[in-house]
Amino acid sequence: MQLDDLDFADDLALLSQTQQQMQEKTTSVASTSAAVGLNIHKGKSKILRYNKTCTNPVLLDGEALKHVKTFTYLAIIIDEHDGSDEDVNEWIGKAREAVLQLKYIWTSKQPTPNSEFSIQM
């Protein structure tokens, strides 16, 4: 099974294996949207090529969409070489900090019932 896109509210992430597929999907979404009175905001539309060397632009109404090295989708950072590794490493670091904070609480000789704790991730 192949996943072609990710949808959430008014966000759409098109997934393609080739530049040609991406161009076809972009054109299709644009024409279908226009048919029902919706416009795609060219300034917010971006292209991220994951481990690809193709440099041909993807066009929307004759204008090349901006190529980016990273983007955030649903609070996940994705980059052109490591996918979401950077984001995962950031979350691991935050979890490690939270556990270290708890270590002092768990090993405390004098915790009281009125102690207040806050852990933020």
Features:
121 residues; alpha+beta; two-stranded antiparallel sheet; two-stranded parallel ribbon; 2 helices; 8 strands; elongated
Give a quick precis of the structure.
The chain contains two helices and eight strands, in the order ββαββββββα. It has 121 residues and is an alpha+beta fold. The chain is elongated, with a radius of gyration of 22 Å.
What would you note in describing this structure?
This is Reverse transcriptase domain-containing protein. It comes from Schistosoma curassoni. With 121 residues, this protein is of the alpha+beta class. It folds into two domains: 5-83, no CATH class; 84-121, no CATH class. 32% of the residues lie in helices and 20% in strands. It is built from two helices and eight strands. A two-stranded antiparallel ribbon has the order 1-2. Strands 3-6 form a two-stranded parallel sheet. Strand 4 (59-60) and strand 5 form a beta hairpin. The longest helix is centred in the last third of the chain and has 22 residues, at 85-106. The protein is elongated and about 70 Å long.
